[in-house]
Amino acid sequence: MKKLTLIALLVLPASIVCAQSPKIGFKAGLNLNHVSSNDDDLKHDLKPRPSIHLGLVADFEMSKSLSFQPQLLFSGRGAKESHGDHSDVIAFNSLELPLNFVYRKDSAKGIFVGMGPSLGYNLNGKIKEEGDSENIEFGSKEGEFKRLDLGLNALLGYKFSQRYFVSTNYSLGLSNWTNTSSVTWKNNIAGISIGYFFN
What we know:
By secondary structure, the protein is mainly β. It has a single domain (2-197), classed as Beta Barrel (Porin). The protein is 11% helix and 61% strand. It has two helices and ten strands; from the N terminus they run αβαβββββββββ. It has helices spanning 2-17, 40-45; strands at residues 23-36, 46-47, 49-61, 66-82, 87-104, 110-129, 132-135, 148-159, 164-173, 186-197. The chain has an eight-stranded antiparallel beta barrel with strand order 1-3-4-5-6-8-9-10. Strand 8 and strand 9 (164-173) form a beta hairpin. The longest helix has 16 residues, at 2-17. The chain is elongated and about 50 Å long. The two termini are 35 Å apart.
């Protein structure tokens, strides 16, 4: 509840300012997920996991240089766990809601930069071990993973025209996904995307 309240407080001022209709678009691309942890075994064994993301993006113009750009993405997250002769895959399917404030010198084309909070929700997950798979349990008990995730997102991109753009982003995980206070599991994402605005 505290995370949702924080996001609402961040979004409300932008929503008030953005009275006009937004541009709506689509984006898709690749993720490289990396888990940061304070556990020495996890830091040694967990390796980056590639995945995809795709979804909708809106652009509310606040001025000629500044806009509020929320996104709703389906995103793969997680990690690979190395065991010497093989690697297990820890895979999460998630919804992400990045809420970026974007600055650009020219609204038509050129470089743009942005930053904002990102709220994630883990829909489901699996651990895949040498051909076998096991569902990941979510909840508040020991050994279960949390569904909600709060992060901080930064992006850099280029608009080729009013419609086409490419971007890179890095999302720093702020939430501990585990229910063990002594062990942290925070999901970080580096991504690259291509996108298109319909209007």
